[in-house]
Amino acid sequence: MVNNTISQISPVMPTYSRFPVTLVKGKGSYVWDDQGKQYLDFTSGIATCNLGHVPDVVKEKLEEQLQNLWHCSNLYHIPNQEKLAELLTANSCGDQVFFCNSGAEANEAAIKLARRYANKVKDSASAEIVTFQQSFHGRTLATLTATGQEKIQHGFAPLMPGFSYLPFNNIEALPVLKTKKPAAVLLELVQGEGGVIPVNLEWVQALAQICQENDILLMVDEVQTGMGRTGTLFAYEQFGIEPDVISIAKGLGSGFPIGAMIAKEEAAKGFDQGSHGSTFGGNPLATAAGVATVQHLVESDVLKNVNEMAVYLDLQLESLKDKFPIIKNIRGLGLLKGLVVETNALEIVQKAISHRLLILTAGPNVLRILPPLTVTKDEIDEFTKALEKTFQSIEKGE
Q1: What digits encode the pLDDT tens for the residues 101-156?
Q2: Burial class (CB in 10 A: 0-12, 13-18, 19+), 334
Q3: Which helix (H) or strand (E) holds 219?
Q4: What is the DSSP letter of 179?
Q5: More exposed terminus of the chain, fewer Cβ within 10 Å: N or C?
Q6: 298-305: Cβ within 8 A, 24+ apart
Q7: The model's pTM
Q8: What is the CA radius of gyration of the chain?
Q9: Mapping DSSP to helix (H, G, I), strand (E, B) and coil, where does residue 164 land?
Q10: CA dihedral 220, 226, 228, 234 (to 10 degrees)
């Protein structure tokens, strides 16, 4: 039956708590709203627009592909898909790639691969997957179950069976893996939604060793940390480990929806023809964006800029911490920064908007700062001034 009743309810489901800003244009580190106001964007679309908004190098490839073919499905060979897979495997420890559309789908593919590898290749008695408290892996039923946060899981019972959780960065909790012998361990190298908390080097190396010695797949969720965000193409490169499976998305397409799961040859045996699939995954448009993005990351000086600007940003954040006692700690890696504050972080984010600055939260008392990887010193100075004005406004009770 057609409902002809006039309603004031928005036709869009209210699953997001939106800020009172309507963005209509972006370029580089800036976005503009429908009133013509300009904002400095230090969210990068939640670590997605790593090369800034509408980067020319990606725009050109997308425009070229738009003239040829948008979609054909994975029943046929897709040249851009092959090229992107070659780029990703050539620049990682992985050997084969499965393409999808998002980070949640990439983690979903990793979960399915781990279970099928345990069941079909190892003939294991356990297909359990261990994740960590305060982690975040997505919003599908399997990935929210993998997420170690009750607030994300609330209301979705019964949750998916086959998951358990260990405390993050707690080396004393790791030996249980030797007796539990799960199919896989899934972790973030920087817990983004969980508060911008990097792994401890000793802990993650001990974890990797236990996984290797006990035939447990080590799966690293690089959805937020991958594609140069932390100063290397993949964050795992900085910790002396080699994961069996890597999930990526966000920055892979410079804002165009694409996700991927990269696996070493042995782990990839868990999938064969018909075991997994995606209608849109790895389509010509998405992979055109991915090819352009990854090529630029590996061939230009963007990663050098990340490391240089990360040092400069740290200095500016430390100067703010010295001025404002409300800032308790600074943590993170590369251009993924977290400011621990002693007040409601969301209030600070809302106040920053009035100073034409966009930043994020990472939990109730952490500000998450995600500038584009192309950020300049002048833009960091502009950010620092805007955030300083924000804290001053809060101190004055404005």
Answers
A1: 999 999 999 999 999 999 999 988 889 999 999 999 999 999 999 999 999 999 99
A2: buried
A3: strand 217-221
A4: H
A5: N
A6: 298/87, 298/91, 298/233, 302/51, 302/228, 302/373, 302/374, 303/228, 303/231, 303/232, 303/233, 303/373, 305/373, 305/374, 305/375
A7: 0.96
A8: 21
A9: strand
A10: 20
User: Which backbone phi and psi does 87 adopt, to 5 degrees?
Assistant: -65, -40
- pLDDT value of residue 396: 84
The two counts, helices (H) then strands (E), for the chain are 13, 17
Measured between alpha carbons, how far is residue 145 from residues 127, 142, 160, 186 in Å? 15, 5, 6, 12
Domain 23-55+301-395: which topology? Aspartate Aminotransferase, domain 1 (3.90.1150)
Q: May I ask the CATH architecture of the domain 56-299?
A: 3-Layer(aba) Sandwich (3.40)
pLDDT of residue 9: 87
Q: How far apart are CA 263 and CA 94, in angstroms?
A: 5
pLDDT at 3: 57
- The answer to whether the CB of 183 falls within 8 A of the CB of 216 is yes
Question: What amino acid occupies position 348?
Answer: I
Chain centroid, CA 102 distance in Å: 10
- Parse the chain into domains and list their residue ranges: 23-55+301-395, 56-299
**What gap in Å lies between CA 264 and CA 242, rounded to an integer?**
9
262 neighbors 97 (Cβ within 8 angstroms)? yes
Residue 330's pLDDT is 98
Task: Tokens for 382, please give them.
Answer: 């502009």
- Which residue, among 169, 174, 175, 166, has the nearest Cα to 190 in the 3D structure? 169
CA distances from 96 to 220, 256, 263, 269, 352 (A): 15, 22, 5, 10, 43
Please give the single-letter amino acid code of residue 108: E
Q: What does the chain come to in residues?
A: 398
Residue 337 tokens read as: 């920064």
- Cis, peptide link before residue 55, omega less than 30° from 0: no
Element (H, E) at 332: strand 327-333
Closest alpha carbon to 263 in 74, 57, 107, 45: 107
Please name the residues in contact with 168: beta carbons below 8 A apart, sequence gap of 6 or more: 132, 133, 134, 135, 148, 187, 191, 194, 197, 199
3-state secondary structure of 311: helix
Residues of the chain with pLDDT under 50: none
Report angle CA 15, 281, 128 to the nearest 5 degrees.
75
